[in-house]
Amino acid sequence: MDCKNLQFSQQAIRGMFETGISEEEVRTAIASGMTTAEYPDDHPYPSRLLMAAGSRSFLVVIAEDTTTETCLIVMVYILDLDLENKETTMNCVICKTGEMVPGYATVTLQRSGTIIIVKEVPADVCQDCGEYYLDEPVAAKVYAQAEEAVKRHAEVEILRYVA
User: Last residue of a domain, which of 78, 113, 135?
Assistant: First the structure.
């Protein structure tokens, strides 16, 4: 498809800024980059992964709206092949590319008329999309705190995580 219009996601803008990849480099990648993967069943638009080659290699994830000839630039990031010198890290299951790092999350739970917010929960947090993962003991503790709030018939309760 010929992309007459481009729209950039927040993740794409962040990736471009952090790596110094210009809009023109992204346009060139779309026009002449190599498609390395296609996702025709993605919604709301089919998407694909492009590899740009040139003075530096990088990847662009685009979703294509053929009705408006618009390419939605989902993500832009540098391809790093120096795997020997890197620790193995977990990538986010949601966005597929974000690296999970130790941090803190605010967990919001809702059941019927009760809303429980637990702040400062230790978690592995995705640097790209913000998704978080709780270790089993932490998740059990958060769940127990939420159950106690439900038993007290709290309507809204804001708690600080207690180990």
Answer: 78
